[in-house]
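Homework-ish question, so no full write-ups if that breaks the rules, but can someone show me the predicted structure for this set?
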Amino acid sequence: MSPTIVGPLTPTEAPRRRRPSLTRTMVLFLLLLAELTVFNLLLPGYMSPGSLLDTSRTFVETGILALGMTFVIISGGIDLSVASLLALVSVVMGLSFQAGLPLPAAMLLGLATGIGGGLLNGAAVAYLGLHPFVVTLATMAIYRGAAYAISNAAAVSDFPPWFTTIGQSYFINGLVPTQLPILLVAAIALWLLLSRTSFGRRVYSVGANELATRFSGVSVERTKLAIYGLMGGLVAVAAIIQTARLSTARANASMGLELPVIAMVVLGGTRITGGAGGILGTLLGVLVLAYLQDGLASVGVRNDWGLVVVGAFLILGVLANELFRKSPR
Amino acid sequence: MQDIGEPISCAAAADFKPTIAACRLIGAGKRFFGTWAVRHVDLEFRAGEVHAVMGENGAGKSTLMKMLHGVHLPDEGQVEVFGRLVTLTSPRAAEAEGIAMVPQELDLFPDLSIVENLFVGRKRPRTRLGTFDWATMRRSALSAFARLDIAIDVDAPIRSLSGANAQMVEIARALMHDARIVIMDEPTAALTEREAQRLFGILGELKRRGVAIIYISHRLDEVFQIADYITVMRDGERIHTGPTSGLEMTTLIQMMIGRPLSKLFHRTRHPAGDTMLELRSLSRRGVFGDISFTVRRGEIVGMSGLIGAGRSEVAQAIFGIAPATDGQILIAGHPVSIATSRQGIGHGIIYVPEERRSQGLVLEYAIDWNMTFSALDRISRGGFVSRRREKQIAERFRGLFSIRCNSIGAPVGSLSGGNQQKVLLAKALVVEPDIILLDEPTRGVDVGAKAEIYRIIDDLAAAGKAVLVVSSEMNELLSMADRILVMHRGRLTGSFEGPDFPVAAIGAAAAGIVAEHNEDVTLHPGAVV
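A: Not a homework solution, just the prediction itself:
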């Protein structure tokens, strides 16, 4: 009479109690292990700690974006503008530094740009009631266009050494890239935020049942605004790291990065329609896809094919979520 | 009454009078994961009769109906339709045998027109060019409604229809394909008394045309009004089948719940306290206007009226979901402004919505998660939710309301309707409100759970809460309310003091008819405080 929901409900951690279902975590782990093993056969030494840690330089920024995207997608939204906003933040930071602003101030300005861009997305979604896909598709163009316009497509690259250290140095015997701890700290903080706080619960609730959330005395609008603002802030952090890593701020930075970011989140088990998912799954998704991309590039597969793989994994991720959801009790 | 508890065997079938059997279940049963949901049921439904199937949630009614409608294949026994053994492998196969179902939750497409909905999932006539032949479809739609004697704009989108008319569309959908057996699952759950009466008129017409109607309902009064035969299911077995005449309502209830019930509902009377909630000419443009009344501590005020009269809207305006545009709300004598539900909760008001699945709960999340969601501030420190406090609260309400579940960590969607409703009530009470607005608190809930919910509401009043109950079930308000307000088209048209309510006058007020002797002044006689 009433629809009974049976068995493991969601692909991953829906709010509490439903930890990432063991099977799914296992599958992702095995996938990661398998791809690393294959690459290790083709390129001896690929699986050594030094090599694995070094590769992490390539996915810290993507990983940070994926953490934020997890919030956005769980709340039933999507943010296609992250890569464009990243470029805009980078350019704003570079240009204001070039114009004579002290770099720490320029970084703060970049952070403000990121949060501002995020809040703009959030306001359009929450208060104008527009679909996040449309909103962020538009701002994807707007932010990228603005980045080109204010920089005249020119690159800024004379950053001081202390800054580039963030993205280009190592510690602990030259093993651990400096930016890796940033990802780890962000992951722990955001995991706590999503799974342990009342804000985290509102994020899930908005994605699972917006109407019921409203009837529970929660401001859906404010929650959405905060989520997109958080996403914007994380974009700024990623922008700073990337600018430091490449020693360059330019408008065509991270072109198309939104695709792998979304793919990682979905692959990690976050339900694309919202209401279920989690940070731990996303981290696994990041590792699986990032090492796959890096490994393919390392064994000489052309970059174009890397994109094909990312696309394929996005579909696989969505499919897997459906399969895991429908699995019998 | 002596035979309660032991299923009556096929003997009951022996005293059926010889009319045409439209369909029969012969020793039918269905097993899920090793457990029999329905076991060895012999049952006969006859042409031109309304046969009510009753029982608490989980008694096996739905499973039984699904076997007739091709959703489940029986694991034992057989189904016979007009004397022929059939294997119903899908609803489509059932429809081909002339069996149609009017589901409990209307599954119509709100943005499509009536005609379009009637032909969803059916073979649509084509023109010679291969395009859909809408003219023919419209004609058959019109004739279907003409047979039901209903004037309706068949091009109107479902969204624009009242609940009753949407129901009629489902029935027309069933009839259009010459259904000779119609299964109705709680057809009046979303209807008001008056709309329900209209439905019963149509059922009478169907009977005359020899249609067998299988009628599932929790509402005893309507079953006694329309059913020719009553079958009671309990724990997957057929407990009783017999004619309605001569059956006592209390006997029926006892058979359904399997235990004696002293009284359906017993309200404890106690003096009301100070005025807690007061509305002064509250209005929301285009929705309702000039609503004034008070609710005192310890008082239960009922709100009656037809669907669409604006009752839910008034309650939602008080709570802040869809705020009023004019007028005043006073709480404990102080004027307050409430523009959001958050502010409503801040003022000690809670609203328990009528649609528990879409407005009330997140079905796939845990019971305790749902219970505490409106009151997260109370159980968190520095934004971090205390799982310990949450568990305590949930366990307390689980015991208090005897919520039947394996664990408070189970998804709320795994519970029966009655237990879901109790979780919804608990969720409202966790915020410790002073003013409780209940919208259809027993919708789609079985008899046992209903009695428990009445007890909870009574306890709330006894504890000094101000309670407003919006309900379409007259019996519920009559037995529970201290006062009944009636709304019609966004206006208050009546206010009646209990305990002896003038039922006819309430019905008249709901229909917008005012007392004749006093025409000039009584446009809304109840709008007095």
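Now go work out the reasoning yourself. Hint: The radius of gyration of chain A is 20 Å.
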